């Protein structure tokens, strides 16, 4: 397994797909960094995994992804405490039925689902690169097709529609994946994204209360596969469904849209490349 003996950060790993992913990876013998926004839930998750795998190598980190300062503090803490980071799984995500703003004044769904992992990933990139062979995995959704997107209106309350806001955030995840993969093509870091399936999570229950999704175990399979299989060594810039490469929406391959979204996100999070 690629993850055996390596360090893996799974964001949003105190419940849902992220928790199931963390449990399985802990059982594979990697060092798993548990992240959540609630310290009690982080501690409880670690205790539950330890009961199942007493020898599991675990550490807990707390950060609120609706705050960019909280993300920056998480980066500082990981850089101080962890010698390396071989796999980053950007799993944390929300669906907000009502319009809201993050602590930084951005539309809440986009802030948590796109801006937080964008800043987290780029800020941890030097540590990831230093780990040599490494993987960045973004959990997106099949619900990412967006037409006529005006990026200047992403954070506008008058333009807000809950399901469209979620789709925009997942669309941005895929653009980020493709752009970052291209930028890192001469490194040993691969970047891929995946649709986990229609999983019985808080997101599904909030967006579609009547819909029955697949189990968390089934939903975590693609994340676990992309993190741990040796078959994907060197594979980068791909979108996966059911653990197989698939085609994402046509707009996601538009280089101009990719670049514009990247530049906007850099501006929004205040990130500058060294």
Automatic annotation (TrEMBL):
Superkingdom of source: Bacteria
Family matches, as Gene3D superfamilies: NAD(P)-binding Rossmann-like Domain
Any one Pfam family match given in the protein's UniProt record, by short name: adh_short
InterPro entries for the chain: NAD(P)-bd_dom_sf (IPR036291), SDR_fam (IPR002347)
Membership in a protein family: Belongs to the short-chain dehydrogenases/reductases (SDR) family.
This protein's name: Oxidoreductase, short chain dehydrogenase/reductase family
Organism from which the protein derives: Anaerolinea thermophila
CDD domains: retinol-DH_like_SDR_c_like (cd05327)
A molecular function GO annotation: oxidoreductase activity
Annotated keywords: Oxidoreductase
Residues of the signal peptide: none
């Amino acid at each position: 397994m690629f993850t055996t003996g390596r360090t893996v950060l799974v964001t949003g790993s105190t419940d849902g797909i992220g928790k199931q992913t963390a449990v399985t990876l802990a059982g594979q013998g990697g060092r798993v960094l548990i992240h959540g926004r609630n310290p009690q839930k982080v501690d409880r998750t670690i205790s539950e995994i330890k009961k199942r795998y007493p020898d599991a190598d675990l550490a807990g980190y707390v950060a609120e992804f609706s705050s960019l300062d909280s993300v920056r503090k998480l980066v500082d803490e990981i850089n101080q405490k962890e010698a390396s980071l071989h796999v980053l799984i950007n799993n944390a995500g929300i669906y907000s039925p009502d319009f809201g703003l993050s602590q930084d004044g951005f539309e809440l769904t986009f802030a948590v689902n796109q801006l937080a992992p964008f800043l987290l990933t780029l800020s941890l990139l030097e540590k990831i690169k230093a780990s040599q062979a490494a993987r960045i995995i973004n959990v997106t959704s099949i619900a990412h097709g967006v037409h006529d997107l005006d990026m200047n209106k992403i954070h506008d309350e008058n333009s807000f529609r809950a399901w469209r806001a979620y789709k925009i955030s997942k669309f941005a995840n895929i653009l980020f994946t493709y752009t970052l993969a291209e930028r890192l093509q001469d490194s040993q870091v691969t970047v891929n994204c995946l649709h986990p399936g229609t999983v019985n999570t808080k997101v599904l229950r909030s967006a579609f209360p009547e819909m029955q999704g697949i189990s968390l175990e089934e939903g975590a399979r693609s994340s676990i596969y992309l993190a741990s299989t040796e078959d994907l060594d060197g594979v980068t810039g791909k979108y996966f469904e059911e653990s197989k490469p698939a085609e994402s929406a046509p707009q996601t391959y538009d280089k101009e849209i990719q670049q514009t979204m990247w530049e906007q996100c850099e501006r929004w999070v205040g990130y500058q490349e060294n």
